[in-house]
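Please check what follows.
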Amino acid sequence: MGVTGIMMFHIQSWKLLHREVSSAVAIYCFGPQKTNFISGLIDRTVDITQLGCPELTDISLPAISCMFACHKSKHVCALRTAYSLAQWLNYYILSL
Protein backbone atom coordinates (compact mmCIF):
# COMPACT_ATOMS: atom_id res chain seq x y z
CA MET A 1 0.00 0.00 0.00
CA GLY A 2 1.52 3.30 -1.07
CA VAL A 3 1.33 6.66 0.70
CA THR A 4 -1.90 7.53 -1.12
CA GLY A 5 -3.48 4.25 -0.03
CA ILE A 6 -2.44 4.80 3.58
CA MET A 7 -3.84 8.35 3.55
CA MET A 8 -7.13 7.11 2.09
CA PHE A 9 -7.29 4.41 4.79
CA HIS A 10 -6.82 7.04 7.52
CA ILE A 11 -9.39 9.36 5.98
CA GLN A 12 -11.92 6.53 5.68
CA SER A 13 -11.15 5.38 9.25
CA TRP A 14 -11.68 8.90 10.60
CA LYS A 15 -14.97 9.24 8.67
CA LEU A 16 -16.18 5.90 9.99
CA LEU A 17 -15.20 6.74 13.56
CA HIS A 18 -16.83 10.16 13.34
CA ARG A 19 -20.03 8.73 11.87
CA GLU A 20 -20.30 5.97 14.48
CA VAL A 21 -19.81 8.23 17.50
CA SER A 22 -21.46 11.43 16.29
CA SER A 23 -24.59 10.82 18.36
CA ALA A 24 -22.76 9.61 21.48
CA VAL A 25 -23.03 11.70 24.62
CA ALA A 26 -19.45 10.85 25.55
CA ILE A 27 -16.59 8.67 24.38
CA TYR A 28 -14.94 6.90 27.31
CA CYS A 29 -11.20 6.34 27.02
CA PHE A 30 -8.70 4.59 29.28
CA GLY A 31 -5.76 6.81 30.13
CA PRO A 32 -4.63 10.29 29.15
CA GLN A 33 -2.72 9.24 26.02
CA LYS A 34 -5.73 7.54 24.42
CA THR A 35 -8.03 10.34 25.59
CA ASN A 36 -5.79 12.99 23.99
CA PHE A 37 -5.64 11.03 20.74
CA ILE A 38 -9.41 10.53 20.50
CA SER A 39 -10.19 14.09 21.61
CA GLY A 40 -8.08 15.26 18.67
CA LEU A 41 -10.63 13.57 16.43
CA ILE A 42 -13.86 13.92 18.38
CA ASP A 43 -15.02 16.12 21.26
CA ARG A 44 -16.78 14.79 24.35
CA THR A 45 -14.12 12.40 25.60
CA VAL A 46 -13.88 11.21 29.20
CA ASP A 47 -10.75 9.63 30.67
CA ILE A 48 -12.16 6.94 32.94
CA THR A 49 -8.96 6.87 34.99
CA GLN A 50 -10.03 10.34 36.14
CA LEU A 51 -13.26 8.73 37.38
CA GLY A 52 -11.26 6.32 39.52
CA CYS A 53 -10.96 3.37 37.16
CA PRO A 54 -8.10 1.17 38.40
CA GLU A 55 -5.29 -0.19 36.28
CA LEU A 56 -6.18 -3.24 34.21
CA THR A 57 -4.03 -5.43 36.45
CA ASP A 58 -6.30 -4.45 39.37
CA ILE A 59 -9.59 -5.18 37.59
CA SER A 60 -11.10 -8.60 38.06
CA LEU A 61 -11.36 -9.72 34.45
CA PRO A 62 -14.51 -11.60 33.47
CA ALA A 63 -14.44 -15.27 32.80
CA ILE A 64 -14.78 -14.97 29.05
CA SER A 65 -12.44 -16.96 26.93
CA CYS A 66 -10.36 -15.67 24.08
CA MET A 67 -10.29 -17.64 20.85
CA PHE A 68 -6.69 -16.68 20.07
CA ALA A 69 -4.15 -19.15 21.45
CA CYS A 70 -1.41 -16.51 21.24
CA HIS A 71 -3.13 -14.47 24.00
CA LYS A 72 -1.54 -16.28 26.92
CA SER A 73 -1.75 -13.23 29.20
CA LYS A 74 -5.21 -12.12 30.28
CA HIS A 75 -4.17 -8.50 29.67
CA VAL A 76 -3.37 -8.99 25.96
CA CYS A 77 -6.83 -9.68 24.59
CA ALA A 78 -8.64 -6.52 23.43
CA LEU A 79 -12.03 -8.23 23.83
CA ARG A 80 -11.39 -9.08 27.49
CA THR A 81 -9.95 -5.62 28.16
CA ALA A 82 -12.88 -3.79 26.54
CA TYR A 83 -15.39 -6.01 28.30
CA SER A 84 -13.68 -5.49 31.66
CA LEU A 85 -13.59 -1.71 31.26
CA ALA A 86 -17.25 -1.68 30.17
CA GLN A 87 -18.15 -3.74 33.26
CA TRP A 88 -16.28 -1.28 35.49
CA LEU A 89 -17.93 1.71 33.81
CA ASN A 90 -21.40 0.18 34.20
CA TYR A 91 -20.70 -0.43 37.88
CA TYR A 92 -19.43 3.16 38.27
CA ILE A 93 -22.51 4.65 36.58
CA LEU A 94 -24.93 2.50 38.59
CA SER A 95 -23.23 3.49 41.85
CA LEU A 96 -23.65 7.25 41.27
User: Anything to note?
Assistant: Helices lie at 3-21, 32-39, 78-94. The longest strand covers residues 27-29. Residues 25-94 form one domain.
